[in-house]
Predict the structure.
Amino acid sequence: MAELAPGQRLDQYELVAELARSGMATLYRAIDHESGRTVVLKIPHLQFESDIAFHERFLREEAIGQRLDHPAIVKVLTPKSKSRMYIAMEYVQGQPLREWLRRTPQLPIDTAVALAIQIADALVYLHAHDVVHRDLKPENVMITPYERVKLMDFGIALDTTQRKMTWGKLSQTFGTPDYMAPEQLKGQRGDARTDIYSLGAMLYEMLTGVVPFPHDNVYASMHAKGAEDPTPPRQIRPEIPPALEETVLHALERDPAKRQESAFQLREELAHPDSVIITGRAARQPDTHRLSTGARTWLTVVGWAAAGAAFILGFVVLVHVLR
C-alpha cells in the first residue's frame, strides 16, 4: 500500500488537495462522490497503520467525533465502507484563530469575548457528553467567514467514560505548552477544568496579544505556569473591563479547584459581566518578581527539572496503561 496523493480515489472520496501534513497524518480536501460534498480526510502515514496502540487511539478519536453533533464542533462523518484507516470530516471554510492573531494580535474586545463565548458553548456540550478536549489552542479553532467557531482535532481528547484516552500528538503538544494547564504539565489526565484553563489562556492572548507566560524558552514558561501568576491583562491593555480581567484570571488559576466550576459558569461570566465579583486576583504579583535575575534563572532551571521529571514519569505510566 502506497501513500496517497491528490487525484487518487479512496473509497467514495476523491482526493483534491493536500491541506496540511503533520508527523503522524496528512489532511486532504476531497470530494465525496456519494453526496457531492467537499470533505476533509485525515489519513495516517503508513508506518503508523501497523501500530496497535496508534490504531486504538485513532479509532477512539473517530468514535468520539462521530458521537458529537454541535454547530461549534467540526462534524466527523461515517463513510459507507473503509479500505484503510482514515477519518472523514466536514469541510469548514475559514481560517484558524492563529491566523487571525497573526494579523491582529489584539482582537477587538467585543470580538474576543464573542469568540470565547462560542468556544465555551462548545465546551459545555463536550463536557455534558463526557469528553474533555485537552488540546485547545488557536491552531485548533477554525473561524468561518461569518465569525462562527468550529473546534477541531480530538487527537488527545479524553473520554471520561473510558479508562484509556487518545494521545495522538504528544510531540506537538509537549512542544507548545502555552495553552496547557499546569496539571497537564505534571502528567495528569486533566478534566473539564483543564479545558477552562486553555480557553482562559486563549482569551488572554486574544485580548493582550501575548500568551499568559511569554518567556524566551519553553522550560521557563512551564516553570512560570506552575509557580507564578500572569501579568493582569489590564496592565497590558488598560481598556479591558475589570470584570473581563477577573474572568480571565479566574480561568487561569493554577489550582483547578479555584477555577470556574464549569464551562457554563465561565460562559455566563463572559456573557453577563455585571454578575462577576471583583476579587484581588489582579493585584497578585508573583514572588519571583522580587528575586534577582540570577536567582530567577536558577529557580527556573530547578522548577523545570522537577516538572519535566514529573511529566516524563506520567507519560511512561500512561504508555504502559495504553499498551
User: Anything to note?
Assistant: Residues 165-175, 287-293, 313-323 have pLDDT under 50 and may be disordered. The beta strands are 9-10, 13-21, 25-32, 38-44, 87-90, 95-96, 131-132, 141-143, 149-151, 158-159. The chain has two domains: 9-90, 95-318.
